[in-house]
Every structure is written in C-alpha cells, then in structure tokens.
Amino acid sequence: NGVPAMFFGQPCWCTAGPLLAALRARAPIHVLAMSRDSTGRYALEIFPEISMARSGDLRTDLINNSQRCQDAIEALVRRYPGQWLWLHRRWKARPELERRWRERTKPDASRRGNP
C-alpha cells in the first residue's frame, strides 16, 4: 500500500501518512539532510518548503505531492551519492508493483477523494 511515484526512473511506493497530515493541516513539508564533509564534520541542511499541490482531489494531490517529495530526495541522493542510506525495500515485488502502480496512477472518478 502507499502512493505511487517514480524514483530514479523506477516506479516505487511511498508512505502517504506525512503528506496526508501536511495536506490536512496545511503544514509545510521540508526535506532535511545530514551530510558529512571532507573534514568528517556533519552538517544538517534544511531545504526550502516543497510547494504542495492542492487541487481538491485528495488522491491526485497525494500522488502529485509524493512525486515532488521523491524528486527532492532524488536530487539529494545525486548530490551525496556515497551518503545515501535507505531502510526499507524501495522496489520490492517488481512485477506486482508495476501492475499496481499503473492501476493507481490511472484517473478513476469512482475513487475521487480516496488515496
């Protein structure tokens, strides 16, 4: 379960919880990154707010905003490729994932307002 998005050109699933909470509370979403520099010191970077789409269709907004977040994370991974760590199976069950991803990204009026 989750929200479909593309990450490094591959379909993946993203958790909907943080986006759903942000949309409902009209709260900002920021990407944060901890990186290590050449001296071994760490720096915390807080990036500008990700502009949230608010079309009035919850499902569409979750998909669009999930992609915006994945794009921001992908940009960070490209910036610091040697420092990327992911703690879950991002691309699990590929054939099944791709089928479900295609189904979830199709417009469907019967699911309006449901993630």
Short description:
The protein has helices at residues 17-25, 58-79, 94-105, and strands at 3-7, 10-14, 32-36, 42-46.
List the helices and strands and how they pair.
Layout: E1 3-7, E2 10-14, H1 17-25, E3 32-36, E4 42-46, H2 58-79, H3 94-105
Antiparallel strand pairs: 1-2, 3-4
What does this protein structure show overall?
By secondary structure, the protein is of the alpha+beta class. Strands 1-2 form a two-stranded antiparallel sheet. Strands 3-4 form a two-stranded antiparallel ribbon. The protein has 3 helices and 4 strands. β3 and β4 (42-46) form a beta hairpin. The longest helix has 22 residues, at 58-79. The chain is flat, with a radius of gyration of 16 Å. The chain is 37% helix and 17% strand. 10% of the residues are buried. It has one domain. Mean pLDDT is 83; it is low at 109-115.
